[in-house]
Amino acid sequence: MTRSVYLRERELFKMIPVLVRSVEGSHPNWEKQDTIVSEKVSVPFKKEVAEFIFSHLREYDVIDDSKLAIEKFVDADQKGLYELKEILECANYFECQPFMNCIGFVIAKKLDTKSIEEIAEFFGVKAEPEGKWFDEDDGWLHPPAEVFQG
Asked: Which sequence ranges are marked TM in the entry (predicted)?
């Protein structure tokens, strides 16, 4: 059973570039005339993730980074890191950059309290032991080649 979401608000729809492109080919005047899109757009994410984006896209539209404050993103702040990661991936799929910046900000705030090992695990990388890589003579970092090996 397909779990569909219907977007009926033109202004919200316009904030999602990937959806706009999916409709423009068959309905070039969709912005100026009443349009019913019968083609389904398949989105490879959980319905709840997409719904979170649709319900917060307008309010999580901060473009000026100096105006970012965790208090502006209460619903996102209540989510866990892995839920936020899914939301960020879906927002990336939708190409909603200002929204992604806001979710990225919330993730960064949550990572502030985590250890290096927890952060590495979240990003799916190995935590490297601390090393003295900074060369004070030339001002460059010189990590060993092993750091760049996958």
From this structure: none
Q: Residue 99 belongs to what H/E stretch?
A: helix 97-111
* Residue 73 one-letter amino acid: F
Cα–Cα distance, 150 to 122 (Å, whole number): 17
Every domain of the chain and the residues it spans: 45-148
Q: Tell me which amino acid residue 112 is.
A: D
- Could you count the other beta carbons within 10 Å of the beta carbon of residue 84? 19
Take residue 103 and report the two structure tokens written for it: 């979710």
pTM of the entire predicted model: 0.80
8 Å CB contact between 54 and 8: no
Q: Which residues of 98-117 are buried (b: 16+ CB within 10 A; e: fewer)?
A: ebbbbbebbbeebeeeeeee
| Chain-centre distance for alpha carbon 10 | 22
Distance CA 114, CA 102 (A): 19
75: Cβ–Cβ under 8 A, 6 or more apart, which residues? 52, 56
**8-33 confidence digits (pLDDT tens):** 888 888 899 998 888 888 878 877 87
Regions of the chain short of the pLDDT cut 50? 1
